[in-house]
Amino acid sequence: MNLNTKIRFIIAIIYSIASYVVLGSVTGIWYIKAGNESAWLVTIVGYFIYELLSVFYFVKPQDTLATSISTILLLVTLDTEGVSNNSIIIKNIGLILSLVALLTSIINIYLNKQDVYPRINRTTYVICQYIGSGKVLFFPVLLFCSIAYYNTNTVNYNAILWLNTFWVFVVLSQPLEVAFYLLNSHTKNSNLSLGKIIRIDNPNIVRIGLKEECSWMNNNYISKLADGKWIRIIPIAKQVQSDAILGTGIYCEFEEPIEKSLIKETSVGEIYQLDNKKTINEIVFNNETDGLEYVGYIIENSCINIVKIEVSTSIELEEGLILVIKQHNKKVYYQIIDGNTTEEIFQSNPKGKTIIKAYQLGMYTLEEGFRRYSWVPDMNTPVFLIKRENTEDVELSNNEIGFIPNTNIRINADFNDLVTYHCAILGVTGTGKTEFAFDIIRNNTYRNVKVICVDFTGDYKARLKDVSPTILGLNSLDCIELEKLIDDVETGAYGAPSEKKKFNSFLDKIKPNIIKQIDDYILSDTNLAIIELPEIATTRATLRITEMYLSNVFNWAKNNRNKKTIQIVLEEAHTIIPEKNMYTYDKVDTESVLSRLSQIALQGRKYGVGLMLISQRTALVSKTVLSQCNTFFTFNLIDKTSLEFLGNVYSNEHIESIKNLKKLQVLAFGKAVKSENPVIMEIPFDPSKKEASMKIGLEDEINNTENEME
What we know:
Layout (H helix, E strand, L loop, with lengths): L4 H23 L8 H19 L6 H17 L7 H30 L3 H14 L2 H19 L5 H16 L1 H11 L9 E7 L3 E6 L9 E5 L5 E11 L4 E9 L6 H6 L4 E5 L5 H6 L6 E7 L7 E6 L10 E6 L2 E17 L2 E17 L3 E3 L10 E5 L13 E4 L6 E3 L2 H6 L2 E4 L6 H14 L3 E5 L5 H4 L6 E3 L3 H16 L5 H27 L4 E4 L7 H21 L6 E5 L2 H4 L10 H21 L1 E7 L7 H4 L4 E4 L5 H7 L5 H7 L6 E6 L8 E4 L4 H23 L1
Parallel strand pairs: 16-21, 16-22, 17-19, 17-20, 18-19, 20-21
Antiparallel strand pairs: 1-2, 1-6, 2-5, 3-4, 3-6, 4-5, 7-8, 7-13, 8-11, 9-10, 9-13, 10-11, 11-12, 14-15, 22-23, 23-24
Helix pairs in contact: 1-2, 1-7, 2-3, 2-6, 3-4, 3-6, 4-5, 4-6, 6-7, 14-15, 15-16, 16-18
């Protein structure tokens, strides 16, 4: 039972007087004497003062230290001459308990200051809680005094019984505490104190020692601080200690007039229940509460870009969810990128905590996307989760490229920047990167961008047939002749001069046809072309022809500066523009393609030509070209080399989150994305796309089977 200090003091005085009366009644001695006769009275008065005035909600190690020293001094100074062996045993037991309490309290106080050995710290604290209790330490002293007094005086044997009965009755039944509690419960004041503030963490977190019957999490409370300010307390957490209940709440200045009756009856620091209940959402966001759920509050070591949040609810969370914080009347959004558990030793019981790490996205508008906010939120600022929404049927429109997971918040892109500033789509197989690329390609064709795809997989023609693509490439006879000429060069005499001459003559012969194909396509009404060379088996031939097509695309753009916007898409980019140390064969032809694409990457924007690289093997793609990309869409990746390169694009925290991305989730950042910070977004699931991809796979399997049979 939690009673205020004034009442506890009165109870301690009454119990002390009652003890004096009991002692005098059973012994007939009404004055204080030296020796064992008065030790009982001194000890029991000390117990009442300790229990009622020193220990309110829990036994601190410092309390145990002081009490154990007191009981040791009492026991050591007690005279054992002429007492029974049983009395001496009781005294020794008391000394052992007091010494154990003394030692554990010293160890606990030292470890707390050093902040080391948490298990030993916790164990010694629990020992302090139980052995350091006044009921334990004072009992051997009182028992010894009563027995020793009987043995050294010719008093009726009933004295022992009366003295110990009084002690047990007062300790176990607490008659005065019960009486005062019942008296208070029948007063006219309906707002009885339900606890007391024991700690304030600025600016707005309070820790409260609660009464056992307090229904903490389901109500609002009001309290008066020492400076006279009235506050409304909204519960956010509750923790059961060994012998107390501790509540944590967020408080704000009370916004309504205070009833006169409440002002008259209340004490500073006491908490009282309120009838007009409000949620944290209502306090912080007024009427904007439908789409928000309270999560926790900002803790130490937060910064402008990354905040740390202590979770104080049982709400289900996951990476990628969006949080919102109110800062200076502005909504600032953060995205969860990590979480961990930790432990805080709060008095006797450790408090397990979940800590969220969230990256700032900024302030949001549909037109401008996320704009960075330039300051860190205050400590203990409430944090809210954007409620989960059903996103199974999400459809994107206009410039939208994705949505925040489990929300209806859309992510926009500037498609002009997406083309002219180059972009990269990276991720392992099966994460959704190719379907995402198809969506961007379609969108660009609708915007009258001339898209040219280099595809050696054979999937683009089937998956983009709705755009009616133009197929670029050599005819069958030219493919056969090209492969034969390359074979002659590779198997000819030393240097193969005559073979190379024939090979170069062939290239000169087919060049006009390639130029014509490029000119006809760019000037046509079709906005998608796919370079396919399915009948060429050698890599060297494929690379050489690819270089010729891309060179002529770039030449057209230079000669017709900015008359058309052109985007070159490289599927499986690592096979076309590999890192230098990754190729040993076809070196001349590979370097030729790489040189041309490097030129496009460096100069293409001047002529309206952009690149889109798609690869599952980021580590193998030429960093010369990749580093020219201004926009990155990164699906799940796990290889170390790729992640090390992306460390130049994203923060370390985002690099860790890349490993955990789910299918169809992508980390987007760069010039074209309407977000000034990296953002985890999701691509809508389209069953028809899955069916189309499966159909391609099935057709390929049938074709392979037929070829084997032939």
